[in-house]
Amino acid sequence: MGSEILSATSSSRNADVTLALAMRRGFLGRCPNCGRAPLFQSYLKQVQSCPACGADFGSIRADDAAPWLTLIVVGHLFLPLIFFVDLGALMPFWIGVTSWAAFFCGVALVFLPRAQGLFIGVLWVTHAPGSESS
Fold first, then answer.
1. What is the residue-wise DSSP string for 93-113?
2. What pTM value is reported for the model?
C-alpha cells in the first residue's frame, strides 16, 4: 500500500510552494516540495524522489549551475578578504598562502551542495528545461 501512495503522489506538486520557498528549502538541503526529507543521498547526489511527499527529482539536471554559483560567491565575496586581512604580519608567507587556500577550499566545499540544492529547487518549481525525462 505504501508504494501505491508513493506512486500516486510522485507527480504531484504542492501548489503553495513559491520560488523563494523552493530555493530556501533546496539551499538547506531539504525537499523543495515538503521541506521534510533530505534532498541529497550523498554529498552531491540527489535523491530520485522524496520519501516523504513523492516529488520526483531524478530527471533534474543542475550539474553545471552549482559550480558556477560557487565560483561567483567564493571568488567575488570571500576573495577580497585576502586584501583586507594581512596574514603576513602574523605568520610566514607560505603559511599564510596555505591558510587562505585551505579556507577557500573549505568555503567552496561547504557552499557547493547548497548551491546544487538551490538550483534543484529552482528547476523543480519552475518546470524548467532540464527537469524533464529524456
1. HHHHHHHHHHHHHHHHHHHHH
2. 0.80
What Rg, from alpha-carbon coordinates, does the chain have? 19
pLDDT band of residue 4 (cuts 50, 70, 90) is very low
How far, CA to CA in Å, does 114 sit from each of 6, 24, 62, 110, 122?
26, 10, 12, 7, 12
Helix (H) and strand (E) counts in the chain: 5, 0
Three-state DSSP at 49 gives strand
How many Cβ atoms from other residues are within 10 Å of residue 79's Cβ? 12
Asked whether the beta carbons of 73 and 119 are under 8 A apart, the reply is: no
Furthest C-alpha separation in the chain: 67
How many CB atoms within 10 Å of residue 106?
A: 10
- Structure confidence by residue, pLDDT tens digits, 36-60: 999 999 999 999 999 999 999 988 9
CA 107 → CA 67, 71, 73, 92, distances in Å?
12, 10, 10, 23
Report DSSP state, residue 87: G
